[in-house]
Amino acid sequence: LRAYSHALEDKSRSLERATAELREAxxxxxxxxxxxxxxxxxxxxxxxxxxxxxxxxxxxxxxxxHMDTAQRQQFLGIIVTEAERLSRLVNQVxxxxxxxxxxxxxxxxxVDLREVAEQAAGTMKESYRERxxxxxxxxxxxxxxxxxxxxxxxxxxxxxxxxxxxxAPREGGRVVLRLHEDPDRxxxxxxxxxxxxxxxxxxxxxxxxxxxxxxxxxxxxGTGLGLPISRQIVEHFGGSMWLRSTPGQxxxxxxSLPRHAPTAADDSYNDEHQR
Length: 275
Ligand code: ADP
Hints:
Layout: H1 2-63, H2 69-100, E1 109-111, H3 113-131, E2 134-138, E3 146-148, H4 150-167, E4 174-181, E5 185-192, H5 199-202, H6 216-219, H7 226-236, E6 240-245, E7 251-258, H8 267-274
Helix pairs in contact: 1-2, 2-7, 3-4, 4-7
The structure holds adenosine-5'-diphosphate.
């Protein structure tokens, strides 16, 4: 009888454990569902805003035969900006969904972050020149590789450079793109001398759709998805991403990636490096 009651106790304990696990799994599913709902309603809201102004302005232009050219040009300018925001938003939402669902394609190779930095700076050079903002590169002569997808890293650096450009002052604007190497990792930083980021916003800057609607930057076509996507990319490669900012004194965004373990093929690098 005792053996029987022991067995019964065991059974009831494992049943309790299973029930608790099921309950926990159920809670997790529910919270995932809630996150999906929140995300969907943010996306819907973000899509609706530009659509509403595109539609309203187009209708105004259609119905008003006497609109003067300057007014028409102004409305067309807004329509184009909003349409551009819409298409960026759709691309970024799809990109983010692909990354989160684990369906993104990653083409990992040994990446030289110097080349990534130079390429991103080259792409942005003209926009910086146009706005009179200085772009200063501070790169070591040679660095070890990181294991990652070069195009994805370029996307991250471009995102940081274009944010920095949007915020750098028109007079005396200056952005520094820095790369440095530690024994275990490589770090890229983009520092601007813009207005910086208020403390309460720093904590949530990497969350989706965190931007101040109505500020100049929002009007300039921001989506609030650039930073969260960038952070996900960096984390995918085992790195981390952060920001430092003293409000009023500019912002510095950075990320680190683990240095790729040197292989026999790296001997030439070491020789050269020590010379
Ligand atoms: P987007 O730039 O498309 O709005 P991001 O995710 O790249 O989206 O940036 C989110 C928000 O973080 C921006 O809208 C802005 O409020 C803030 N931010 C990003 N970079 C800077 C910067 N260099 N200086 C000040 N604020 C910034």
